Amino acid sequence: MDRGEACREKFHTLFGGEPVSSEGTDPEFMRILQRFIFGEVCYTGSLDDRMRELITITALAVNQTLPQLKSHVGACLHIGITPVEIREAIYQCAPFIGFPKTLNAIAAMNEVFTQQGIALPLESQETVTEETRHQAGLAIQAPTYGDEIQDRYTWLPKPFDKAVPNFLTDFGFGDYNTRTGLSEKERELLTVVLLAALGGAEVQVKAHVAGALKTGSTREEVVCALVHAMPYMGIPRLFNALNCAKAELTEE
C-alpha cells in the first residue's frame, strides 16, 4: 500500500471521510500534511489508533491549537474512545500547562461533546478526599520518583521548602493520577508527550521518560509516542526530547 492509499485508509478510519484531493484554498499543503501524518507517521511504530489519538489531543491541548483539537476529539469518539478517556487526557494537562490553557481545551472538548449529544458533566472519576489526597498522591509518586523533589528544594525559604514539594505531590499526583479513566501507564506516557510538546522542559521530559518505563511502557512505545506527536509539536521538540532522554531510551 502506497502513502496515498495508507492516508485514505487511516483518514477514513479516524474521521469517516476522505482526505483532501484538490479542494479548498491550499490543497497542496493539505496533501503534504495529510499524507505525512496519516500515510506515514500513523503507520510507524507499535501504538494503536486509540493511544495515538490520545497523544494527538494531548499535544494539541498543550499547544492550544483548538480547531484541530476539536477535530481530533471528534476522531477519538469516532474510533470508540470514551468521553471519560478523552476528558482525563485533557484534565491531566493542568499541572503542566496551567489552568487557563486547560480550560480552553476543556471548552473545545465540551463543544464537541455537546454537538454529539453527550450529556455533561460526565461521571466523576475522583477517588480521593481532602483528607486522603496527599497520601494517595505520595503512594503513586514515591515508587516511581522517590523523594528527590523533597530533597531538592530544602534550600527554599520557609514555608516554601515544604509547600512546593507538597504541591507537586498533592496537586500533580493526588488530584490527577489518582483518578480513574486512564491507567497509570497511559498517564505517564501522555505526560512525556505533553512535556515534550511544551518545550523547555527537558529535565522533566527525562524524568518522566524514566517514569514511563517504570510504569510499563517500552522504549519503543515511548519513542513512538514522541514521534507520533512530532507533526503537532514540530521536529525540534522531538529532537530535544529524544536527545535529553537518550540514556533512558538506549538499550542496556
Structure, described:
The protein has 252 residues and is mainly alpha-helical. It folds into 3 domains: 1-43, no CATH class; 44-118 and 179-249, AhpD-like; 133-176. It is built from 15 helices and no strands. The longest helix is centred in the C-terminal third of the chain and has 18 residues, at 160-177.
Q: Any descriptors?
A:
single chain; 252 residues; mainly alpha; AhpD-like; 3 domains; 15 helices; globular
Task: Give the arrangement of secondary structure elements.
Elements: H1 3-15, H2 27-39, H3 49-62, H4 66-78, H5 83-91, H6 94-97, H7 99-115, H8 133-145, H9 148-152, H10 160-177, H11 184-198, H12 202-214, H13 219-233, H14 235-244, H15 246-249
Helix pairs in contact: 1-2, 3-4, 3-5, 3-11, 3-13, 4-7, 5-7, 8-10, 11-12, 11-13, 13-14
Shape: globular
* Average pLDDT score: 96
Q: Fill in the CATH topology of the largest domain.
A: AhpD-like
Helix tally equals: 15
CATH superfamily descriptor of the largest domain: AhpD-like
**Helicity range:** 55-70%
CATH architecture descriptor of the largest domain: Up-down Bundle
**Helix/strand class:** mainly alpha
Main sheet overview:
none
Low-pLDDT residue spans: none
Using the CA coordinates, give the radius of gyration.
19 Å
